[in-house]
Amino acid sequence: MSAFSRAPFGGTIDKTVAGSKPWWPQATRPPQGAPNILVVLFDDVGFSDFGCYGSPIRTPTIDRLAAEGLRYSGFHTTAMCSTTRAALLTGRNHHSVGVGCLANFDSGYPGYRGKIAREAGTLAEMLRTHGYRNYMVGKWHVTPLTESGATGPFDGWPLGRGFDRFYGFLDAETDQYAPELVSDNTHFDPPGNFAGGYHLTSDLVDQSIRFIADHVADRPDLPWLTWLALGACHAPHQAPADIIKGYDAMFAHGWDVEREQRMTRQKAMGMVPPGTKMPARNDGVKAWDEHSLDERRVFTRLQAAFAGMLDHADRHLARLIGFLDQAGIRDNTLILVLSDNGASQEGGPLGFVNAMGPYNFRPEPMAEKLRRIDDIGGPDSHTNFPHGWAMASNTPLRRYKQNTHGGGIRDPFVMCWPKRIAARGELRHQFVHASDLTPTLLDLVGVSSPREIAGLAQMPIEGESYARSVADASAPSKTSPQYFEMFGHRGIWKDGWKAVAFHPPGTPFENDKWELFHLDQDFSEVDDLAAREPDRLADMIELWWREAEKHNVLPLDDRFGPRFAENAARFHGARNSFVFHAGMGHVPTDVAPDVRSRSYTIEAHVEIGDAGAEGVLIAHGDATSGYSLYVKDGLLVHDLNIGGSHEIVTSDRRVPAGAQRLGVRVERLVRKEPPAKGARTGVSEYTLLIDGEPAGSLQTQLGFHTLISWSGLDIGRDRSSPVSHYEAPFEFTGRLLRVTVAMQDNQKLDGEEVGNAEMARQ
Fold it and tell me: What is the pTM of this model?
């Protein structure tokens, strides 16, 4: 053969120079009989929420998979979404790969970059080298959100980390009726809306079916990985109203009764040992009967929205499993159904109908919640349930997501593979961790992790395969210790024992109280043995510090707000102006102008003919929160939407033909007297501008004090869920040339409140 051969894109490669291996990526044939892999990853679903884990919520599809496969009672995660996803995808601990906390910020320390290190190949990258095609659908959230804009960089997006196709969203959450969607590397509009019956869960399942159907048509000889990461059941809890209301009667008895009923079922099915004790209510959770009738009615509906969202997701999962049956490929498809962390505490003690108002200091009193009870789960709601129901979701475990007690890190995990798993409906009680998933899947496929990916040497796999437990119920748990850390909360597991410390933010770490539990005998972590076994506890704490140093956990950082604020400051730097030209696409909120708690001016440069024009000039947000500048009925309008409360200023004169600049000037007014103690809001004046001249104004204490919206920005239109009182997209009918945003350097943010709002997003 000639020393020269054709290169893949034309030209030639000199093999005497390039060596025997081509420079472009190569894949070996997959092992004979290698399975397809379907990972169904739920969000913020607690340990007891699937029917097959003790819940009354209707999940027949998941229950069927469990009856045909296995359920694990000892599957552990990392307490948060970005971190668990990093561990699941890479087979390493989350700090080790640079995602020690959230993808929302980069602290500069190796364990906290917010992005998976290139030295930590993903499961998709590993399987690609063995002939797999890889499809990612749904929530990603292991890319820094400041890298989520139109220019990327795209190396941390799914297509940059081994997936061949992507359809989903990059952020921690999105509205289920008007989601922030990305196809491959491009932001695009949702294909439907609430009025037309659109829901993101249905859309994600449709796309999963399409990817798999396309694969079967094109390459039926190759196996596939489809990673379906649903938005359910992360807030906002949104689902069809009829499903939600159907759960009111089921949960009217409240969370105390619900916990007891769930644990009774768990004991009957062998999910927890017969002697498992129910922990006391979590801190700050009152008995159900101590709440008023109005409170109980609202809380019940908020729980019904959560249940309805899970039920709705299970119904659509049934379509996907049905397609696998119809296509004749389910027998050799390994299906995994799991959650990324425990149920969320971000709903607070009273829950929310629209959390976006309270995050900007606009209260949502119980009377308002009750008045809006039928809005819960709908397109203008951003609902989350109260602590008591999150506690019930995690039955019989203590605390919640974010915490390293069982309620934050112990989750449901179902595995089904008809061709290979003969143990139908059995339970497995081994301790396994999210970082153990990738090595287990590689083991079951029959391949090893590559030493290099794209020429880069790879970190060692830190998880341990639990493939042996699939066939052997008596197989041991993992042999290595497993640490936990999140926002200063810490934990360590070894040989059936666990030491754990709850860390109150802002307090010295040395003041934390460590507890000690023998998990093999105390499933729910209620019998603290710290005083009885001080030497064992001391050894466990010392082990935690060694593991922390080994895996880049240090330095410990319990700050919420400052970490978000520092990241935003690093990203935006001294930039105080933006220019958005006509024809541009959607702008994610983290790369849009940060107009929170500051003075700024927006001007749209337009051409308006004699017939006039109307429509949106710029809109950032959605029906739950945001701002919009638009022309309607011949008048210029600005709407400040704070949690569904609209502060609207309308021009005092019509927009004339020939107008060239339409804008709004926002000024933070300096108080002549210091604010009252405990006051959190200032006053801002919103002045409309027509060709630079004032055209009407208002003053308000409402404003974007901690966030604008988790939906992004568009010019010339409001793409989906309307910020103001018009029907989206309400495109501008004149000629829009560009929109400029000029911000003053007088931003003052309440760091802790920003942190609290951002944490609710995770």
Answer: 0.93
